[in-house]
Design a protein that fits this description.
Layout lengths: L25 H4 L30 H4 L4 H20 L1
C-alpha cells in the first residue's frame, strides 16, 4: 500500500466475487438437474429456472467464470421469478 492511502469506509454490503468452475459432483448428486457439456447448470435464460421445479441458478454455475455484474443480473432475474413462483 501507498503510505497514507488507507481509509475506512462504512458499507451496508460487501460482495466478494471470485471466478470459479462448477463442482463436477453437482450433476451426480442432484437427480433431474440438467448439466451442460462444460459442467454448468442449464437454465431458462429468461427466468434462470433450472430443470428442477422451484430451483433457480445464476452466476458462475451457469455461465462459467464471469463478472460479478452478470451474476448480479442473474440474481435479479432469479429473485423476480422466485417471487412469481412463490406468489402463485
Amino acid at each position: 500500500p501507498i503510505e497514507g492511502s488507507e481509509f475506512i469506509m462504512e458499507v451496508d454490503l460487501v460482495v466478494v466475487s471470485i471466478g470459479n468452475s462448477p463442482n463436477p459432483l453437482i450433476g451426480k448428486v442432484t437427480p433431474g438437474l440438467k448439466i451442460g457439456k462444460w459442467g454448468n447448470v442449464e437454465v431458462d435464460w429468461n427466468t434462470m429456472a433450472t430443470s428442477l421445479d422451484g430451483v433457480y441458478a445464476g452466476g458462475d454455475i451457469v455461465r462459467g467464470g464471469a463478472t460479478v455484474i452478470l451474476a448480479m443480473g442473474d440474481a435479479r432475474v432469479a429473485a423476480r421469478e422466485m417471487h412469481k413462483y412463490l406468489s402463485a
